[in-house]
Specification:
heterodimer; A: 240 residues; alpha/beta; Rossmann fold; 2 domains; six-stranded mixed β-sheet; four-stranded antiparallel β-sheet; 10 strands; globular; B: 265 residues; three-stranded antiparallel β-sheet; 10 helices
């Protein structure tokens, strides 16, 4: 298998200056992820699952360790990469999916979904065409495509968000509970899209409240409970 | 305990804007202390900080309105060389008219309030040497349209317009010559929230369609969050922290940045 990510000795805590203390999130985490592999992070609330995803995406800055990512430009340590390189990788190779849509005033649903394609250089018409197909797949009604999602219900916004977040195939994808509060049809559409991307070689690391939603995709489970050592990695079929 | 970042390895283009080690004192007050900043082509750099942090002074220097006591400023453009602070008044004026656009918080600073809106935009083109009336009118109209200014009000003077419309005229004037750099000094401060959203949306569209490099100064974190790719936090004339916008807002490192982010409603 082709290695996509090699995490070694990764440590993250938060220094809260006004309280004058440090809150540890996770310490000395090491694991690897291959192309097309789906890794599920598990652990109790507060074990640091979402924090780990955000650290890999560099919304949080790690305090020690390395995150070696095999980009099309060669190996790069995401823990130390320049901000401008991280911004570039986020546009081209690394995606992050949450359950929340960052809607902007006066931007239609189809335009918001097409935006990542536009930024990647796809011509306007083609990007809109693909965006409409994605919206259809996630079950957003056609009358809503040209409307502004700022006024949509939570569920509809979430569908728009997923269509947008998954429209450009990425090399590495972080999934932060994207299935929470999705209806059954949209959940099925999400699993379909993830299956497609996985087959194309996208490496995925995910946090799911109900891992059963994505059961068939999971290759490996990593437990972030503090006393866990990687040698004891559980197989998906046992863990679930 | 934070890791030191590497120099860029994937993005090999040079920064469009580079300000290095700039210091400036006004009498006993040190407004800027050894400040450096850069912005890559197409990037939006946000500068935040409280009143008196030096953020607006820095922006005025980027617009060559002020000269620092020391430090340098370069723009990586084909026909622009050397430290721009060394340019004479005429060269500065030409460079600002043709390559740099600015939108001020106070429209009175950027506009002739009693001249027509299209005239305000055309004036910028005149300074750059355009003389054909038809071209002036056409280009001014195009810039106003891109700024989403209502075209039936082309001849209205800014003094008769609402605050949001005045900002659109400033924006049209700033982009009329397709500048390489657009500077925004609190562009939406003082506008109604709904108008603010519309102006922000216009800025976002312009940025995406034209790939203009922007530097935006604001004390409004929401504005910075909406527009900026990267954020620089200033306090008392110094840079205390820089980072990707989401990182600054979600995982601020410096005590002052934490205070600033946590104070947001």
């Amino acid at each position: 298998m082709t290695r996509v990510l090699d995490i070694s000795g990764l440590t993250k805590g938060f220094t809260l200056h006004h309280l004058n203390n440090r809150i540890a999130a996770f310490d000395d985490i090491s694991f690897t992820v291959d192309a097309g592999e789906f890794v599920l992070l598990k652990g109790a609330n507060g074990a640091g699952k979402s924090t780990l995803l955000r650290t890999l995406y560099r919304s949080y800055v790690p305090q020690a360790g390395s995150i070696t990512f095999q980009s099309v430009h060669g190996a790069i340590d995401l823990a130390r990469a320049a901000d401008v390189d991280i911004a570039h990788l986020r546009r081209t190779e690394i995606g992050f999916v949450t359950q929340f849509l960052l809607a902007r005033p006066r931007v239609s649903a189809e335009a918001i979904v097409a935006e990542p394609l536009r930024l990647a250089g796809v011509p306007q018409d083609e990007a809109l065409d693909q965006a409409r197909q994605a919206l259809a797949k996630f079950g957003v009604k056609q009358d809503l495509w040209r409307a502004y999602p700022t006024t949509f219900s939570g569920g509809e916004q979430q569908k728009v968000n997923l269509a947008r977040a998954l429209i450009v195939p990425q090399k590495l994808l972080m999934l932060d509970e994207p299935t929470a509060s999705l209806d059954a049809n949209a959940r099925a559409a999400l699993v379909n899209r993830l299956t497609e991307l996985k087959a194309q070689g996208t490496a995925m690391i995910g946090v799911f409240h109900h891992p059963g939603d994505v059961e068939k995709l999971i290759d490996r489970v990593i437990d972030l409970t503090p006393d866990f050592t990687p040698d004891e990695e559980e197989r998906a079929d046992v863990a679930l | 305990m934070t890791l030191t970042l590497d120099a860029p390895r994937i993005v090999r283009t040079r920064a469009l804007l580079q300000v290095s080690n700039v210091s400036k004192s006004y009498g006993p007050v040190q407004a800027l202390r050894n400040v450096s900043a850069h912005a890559y082509p197409g990037e939006v750099l946000g500068i935040v900080g409280e009143s008196g942090s030096g953020k607006s002074t820095l922006l005025r220097m980027m617009n060559l309105e002020e000269t620092p006591d020391q430090g340098s400023y370069t723009l990586d453009l084909p026909d622009v060389q050397g430290n721009l602070f060394d340019l004479d008044r005429f060269a500065r004026r030409m460079l600002c008219a043709t390559r740099i656009g600015i939108v001020y918080q106070n429209p009175h600073l950027g506009l002739l309030m009693k001249h027509s809106s299209s005239g305000n935009v055309a004036e910028r083109l005149l300074v750059a040497g355009e003389r054909s009336f038809a071209t002036l009118r056409a280009k001014a109209t195009e810039a106003l349209e891109a700024s989403e200014f209502p075209l039936d009000r082309l001849d209205a003077p800014p003094i008769e317009l609402s605050g949001g419309m005045q900002q659109r005229v400033q924006l049209a004037k700033a982009i009329a010559l397709e500048p390489a750099l657009l500077l925004l000094d609190e562009p939406t401060t003082g506008l109604d929230v709904s108008v603010q959203a519309l102006v922000l949306d216009t800025l976002k569209r312009l940025q995406q369609d034209r790939k203009i490099t922007m530097v935006i100064v604001s004390h409004d974190l929401g504005v910075i969050r909406t527009l900026a790719d990267r954020v620089m936090v200033m306090r008392r004339g110094e840079v205390v922290e820089t980072g990707l916008a989401d990182q600054i807002f979600q995982d601020p490192q410096h005590a002052y940045t934490q205070q600033l982010v946590h104070a947001k409603l």
